[in-house]
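[job 4471] stage=fold_predict status=RUNNING
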Amino acid sequence: MVVSDLLVRAAGGVITRVQDGVTEVLTVHRPRYDDWSLPKGKADGDERDEDTARREVEEETGLRCELGETIAVSHYIDRKGRPKRVRWYRMTPLVDLGFEANDEIDEIRWVPLIDASGFLSYDRERVVLERLGDS
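[job 4471] inference complete, writing C-alpha cells
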C-alpha cells in the first residue's frame, strides 16, 4: 500500500452571509469532540472535492450553497494517525432546508467574521479564515 492510498480526502465550506451590514461565517458544533469548526467531511470513494463540499455542508447545516473558489487546502494528521487533506471552498447559502441536530452536529451558529477566529477550536481553521480575505 502506498502513502497516497492512506490519504483521507475531505472538503468543506466557509459559508458567509451579510446580516445587518456584518459579514458572518457559519460554524458547527460537534458534540463528540466538543469543538466548534467549519463544516467539512470525508469524500465518498472517488467523489470530487467540489461535490464532497456541497454534500457535507448540506448534511451538516441544512444549507444548499453556491460553491465559490478554493480558499485554502489544509494538510494534517487525523486522530487515527492518517494524513488528511481538506480542500476549503468559499460558499454562499442559496436554500435553507432546515438544520436538524444529530449525533454528529448538534448546533450551528453564525458568528461575525471578525470574531470567528477566536471562536473556532483549531488553528488550522483559523488560517483558512485568514485566507478568506486573500481569495
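[job 4471] summary: The chain has four helices and seven strands.
[job 4471] exit 0
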